[in-house]
């Protein structure tokens, strides 16, 4: 005969077991729902040069992440140059973000330079891909020479203390900070993790490995709030710059700004030497304004800009003076030196015009100048079939307004001309009074005009 108490206990045990199984099933079903209810994981890429426009894009991305209650914002850093004042501002924004921010130096082979030095310590979590590095070989802080020793020391200590506070708050090493600030330092990913404690939190080959590694990590935000990250199996959503931001980021590229400046100079020169409706001048002004956008946000050496102007002036002068290429050679040297020193490396480490662009522009300008000088010399030495003096007394039609200089059409060719008696509008007839090298002097027709100038443009003077 069975004991009733034992049967009761057995029934309760079976029911308790079933209850535990049901509860486990409910919890297992609730986990995916909980993960689905968490905020999105966003990613963005900072490449090229960290400038004012890059910082604006980063700030917008952080605002969107905060508004969406994002789980995480991953900044994929591949920028090799940075304007120090701007990247410092970006680092402060990252440190104060109300969502966890991971700065990830990637892809493999990236040298993140000054951008990495500032953004990695400020990030809630710092990550690097294999074969990457951060830091520069020059002091991160370079006070101007006119500052006193006390002021210079104050600037050094301010930056050192900021880095130290960030690293200690994140549990990362600050042993490298003082050398980086005062002397310059470059750390690769292996050296960074070898420090005790490590200077970075994670080394991951790619984004997916990074997400796996971040699962369950606890992040403390600026206000003391703790967040436990849930990243396993999550699909990150990329945040891309808007079309306007893309245009601004492109214009703030040093090589693009330099090329726009060169093209603007060529267009304006083309307008000065050829008659037209101002199309080239308008194009030159637009290109100049576009170049100015980049030059304004980058630390430009204005002496180098002046050098570019002088270089083009010398090259153009060679077309009108018998220097036989001497001005062009000097102009090319000034052009190359000015282009290579166009941006201040002390204020923006890693920012400069690409060498290929400097070489390309120098070769194209040299070829253009050589052709121009050859044509000018050939024209000067060419025997005159009818004699330029034969143009004296001929009627010419004004093609570009004489005020007092412009262009006229005579004997089937366009000639640069100077009016001796005031401005003359296009379409009016003038009479040639003299020829000086390749320039005519003309007077407005006051008597009954003779035959109109021939209209077939068979040659150009």
Give an overview in words.
- Residues 21-36 and 455-461 have low confidence and may be disordered.
- The chain has 461 residues and is an alpha/beta fold.
- The chain is elongated, with a radius of gyration of 35 Å.
- Strands 9-6-5-3-1-12 form a six-stranded parallel beta sheet, with helices on both faces. Strands 13-14-15-17-16 form a five-stranded mixed beta barrel.
- α10 (254-273) packs antiparallel against α11 (279-297) and α12 (302-317) runs antiparallel to α13 (326-340).
- The protein starts with a helix and ends in a 17-residue tail after the last strand.
- β16 and β17 form a beta hairpin.
- It has three domains: 39-242, 2-enoyl-CoA Hydratase, Chain A, domain 1; 253-381, no CATH class; 389-444, OB fold (Dihydrolipoamide Acetyltransferase, E2P) (Beta Barrel).
- Helix content is 48%, strand content 16%.
Short structural summary:
By secondary structure, the protein is of the alpha/beta class. 48% of the residues lie in helices and 16% in strands.
Low-pLDDT runs: 21-36, 455-461
Number of domains: 3
Q: What is the CA-CA span between the terminal residues?
A: 130 Å
Helical coverage, percent range: 40-55%
Strand content: 15-25%
Oligomer: single chain
Please give a handful of descriptors for the protein shown.
five-stranded mixed barrel, six-stranded parallel beta sheet, 16% strand, alpha/beta, OB fold (Dihydrolipoamide Acetyltransferase, E2P), disordered C terminus, 461 residues, 2-enoyl-CoA Hydratase, Chain A, domain 1, 17 strands
